[in-house]
Amino acid sequence: MTHFTRRALGARVFALGMAPAILRAQGKTVLRLGWTSGDGALDPYATGARLFKQALEKRVGDRVDVQLFPNRAIGDERPMLDGMRLGTVDMGIITNAVIAQIEPAFQVNDMPFLFSSEAQGHRVLDGAVGQALRTRLESRGVLALGYMEGGFRHMINNVRPIVRPEDLRGIKFHVLQSPIYIEMFRSLGGNAVPMAWGETFTAVQQGAVDGLEIPLGIVDQSKYYEVTKFLSLTGHIYSMIGCLISKRSFDRLPADLKTAVTEAAAEATPAQRAANARATAGFRDSLQKHGMQINEVPDKAAFRRGVLPMYENFRGQIGADIIRDALAAVQ
């Protein structure tokens, strides 16, 4: 094989995402970790990625190089997740609804008005339900290292404040490409427009959609206050974001690094949740200062009544046992 051929083959291997195996042969393991939002100091995805990197490198030093790729640098969430299944992407911080596209049981976390507090979400995800979800996701070729959080999701738009379900009528909301999100808005009388995250800011800016629903941290850190006017604190869905690793990438690691990766995620997850809670406390003031009109939603019971049939409709997709255990855990 000529020198040129070897170089060309090396470039092709790198492009296919196999560089970590080459670098491991030189005594260093590279783990590439991507997410789709920004790398701001308070961004919940970025915070989780940085805390994982710190926790892992604290354990193993320069044996592992965790490379961080924000802003869709290695793709939107679904392509990243598909890459993890193939072993061409090592890691990602991925929104729950996108995880549910490959393992429908994860839809339980997006059931509207299931959780009334972050503590309830933690209790369910750190218990039997979270373990059952881990097992199911592993069969799809992806390992859930930690259930981090983006916080509760709220509605932002340019038409009117959302106080009652009827306020949703006629408003076009961007939603994640998820049956749960589409059905929630349909049940409440709104218009759901599913699209990839990377298209959303421009769609709102140009008026193709009127608004969207995301956690306060993403509204603030992604500067959605520049393109939307009304923020309604609906708190309709608790946003879990998964710290995930490709099973193929994980299986290639030596035993001691597998342990270190697992321990690092276990340390980073509660630290990320705590950091996000601290940051969230300041996001409301920040958004108000940037000119958003913020309103509370005093009667969430009306919204809950509107979405109640969804729990029965999605029982088959999610799994009756998962639904049962999640509902029992929030009582």
Taking pLDDT < 50 over at least 5 consecutive residues as the criterion, the unreliable ranges are 1-22
Radius of gyration: 20 Å
> Judging from the principal axes of the Cα atoms, what is the shape?
globular
What is the SS-derived class? alpha/beta
| Rounded mean pLDDT score | 91
**In percent, how helical is the residue content?**
40-55%
Report the β-strand fraction as a percent range: 15-25%
Count the helices. How many? 15
Biggest sheet character: 9 strands, mixed
CATH class: Alpha Beta
Instruction: Give a count of the beta strands, DSSP E runs of length 2 or more.
Output: 9
| Distance, first to last CA | 66 Å
What order do the SSEs take from the amino end to the carboxyl end, as H and E?
HHEHEHEHHHEEHEHEHEHHEHHH
